[in-house]
Every structure is written in C-alpha cells, then in structure tokens.
Amino acid sequence: MAEPGTNSRQSELGDFLRSRRQKLTPKAAGLLPGGRRRRTPGLRREEVADLAGIGVDWYIRLEQGRSVSPSAATIDALARALRLTRAEHRHLRELTQNADRRAFVRETVPPAVRRTVEQLNLPAYVTGRRWDILAWNAAADEIFAFSRLAEADRNSLLSVLTNPATRRLFGASWADEARRMVAQFRATHDLWAGDPAFRDLLARLREGCPEFIGWWEAHDVSGVAAGRKSLTHPKKGRLKLEYASFQANDDPALKLVIYMTV
Q1: What is the DSSP secondary structure assignment for residue 147, as one 8-state letter?
Q2: 254 phi-psi bin (left φ>0, alpha ψ -120 to 50, beta other)
C-alpha cells in the first residue's frame, strides 16, 4: 500500500513497480542462483535497485508511492531491470510525468466526425478516454446494439464485462477478450486514478464482473493494437471481424474503431 500523503498516480506507480517485480523471476532477470532463501518467486527490492543502478532506499520510496521524480535515464534503467514490454515501459514513463489535475469530463464528438462515422458502410464507433461509447453507425448497432443501452451503460468495458448479452456474443472467447481490454484500459486508468468518473466505473466493474477483480489486481498493461474478434450473433450467426482504431485530430482523446469482415 502507498504511504499516507501520496497522490493516486504515485500510488499506481508504486503498485505497478511492485507487480512487475513480484512477477519477474531471478532466472528471467539473469541473476545467478544462490543467496538467502526466498519467500516469494519474485525479485527483492534491493535486486531491482542493483540491476537498475539506483539506491535501494530511493527505489523503496518509488514503490511506496512517495513523491519522487525519476529522470528519463532512471526510468529506462528500471524498464530494463524489470524486463518491461514496450507498452509497460511507456506506461511507467507516463506515470512519472506531471498529472493533469483537471476532473474528467465526458468528451463531445465533433459533428463532422459523427457524420463521417454514420455514413461509413463498415461497422464503426467512437469512444472517449474512459472508453465511453460516444457515437456509432447503423452497421455497428446491428452487431453491438448500442442504441438499446442506457446512456450510463454505453461504455465498452461495461458492455463486454457486465452485459450478459455481450458476453454471449463473444462466447468462448469472452474471457480472453475481457482480460485484454482490462490490460489496455489499465494504461489509461492509472493516469486518471482517483478521478470520480474513473472510480465510479471501477466500482461498477467490480460489482458486475466477478472475474474483473483478479484481472485488475494483476496490474497487467498492454497497448492498443489492431486485431480480430470472433462473435456469435443471435441473428447474423458466426462473425469473424478484423478491427483497427484511429485517433481523431480534433481531439486525441477520441478513438475511432472500424470493423471489417474476414
């Protein structure tokens, strides 16, 4: 747990470092066997500090979520020591940057972007920073039934993790898809940790999806990338879709997702 007096982002930074350290085995870190007996399979704090070339006390302060400002070189050294992926390295860097103290406000889709989405023949929709579903076209609605959801429920995470109809849509692939989404969302959430809108979303996910708590506590982080989904639609039958996402120049917080049949 973070020390008293720390902010939410610093707390998430500490939790993230701890989770990566505890998952990294000495063998994977290139450490020689031997030494004192281990209670857990992960690395010790002093081992991470030594691998990164930083002081143990200073590293402990980072894990405690205390106010410390690591340099870019130190961030890169920690990433190498903890064998972070590219997405995890980027996340670590973002967590150490100055936080935006403004409260989250649900985004507004510019009219031109909305009209573009509505006129696309392919299934498409726009999401915001909190993964709220802000605009969609008829082709997407035929598959995901966004128009049938209450406005407060129009959120990609809530739809996939807590809506029984969406869970049936994904069928046997639901758990893999849901866990992937949680890892992707984690990268955004930690930058807004403590914000009321994000706290509310987490509370609903914890309440509505029993599996979510374990996935969330694993603190896995992954980047957003194109991919494929296999769905079983009640009317359209088996659907194999490929998707890609794009940021809007009008507002980088807006993400356009487009699906294609494969």
Answers
A1: G
A2: beta
Type of residue numbered 239? L
- What are the residues whose beta carbons fall under 8 Å from the beta carbon of 157, sequence distance 6 or more? 131, 181, 182, 185, 201, 205
pLDDT in tens, 175-205: 999 999 999 999 999 989 889 999 999 999 9
98 is written with which tokens?
């100055």
Which amino acid would we find at residue 260?
M
- Residue 11 structure tokens: 């707390």
- What gap in Å lies between CA 259 and CA 243, rounded to an integer? 4
Cβ neighbours of residue 58 closer than 8 Å, sequence gap 6 or more: 49, 68
CB-based contact 146:133 (threshold 8 Å) = yes
The token pair that represents 260 in the structure block: 């294609």
Query: Which 3 state secondary structure label does DSSP give 225?
Result: coil
Contact (CB, 8 A) for 22 and 217: no
pTM to 2 decimal places = 0.86
Segment holding 239, helix H or strand E? strand 237-247
pLDDT in tens, 112-151: 999 999 999 999 999 999 999 999 999 999 999 999 999 9
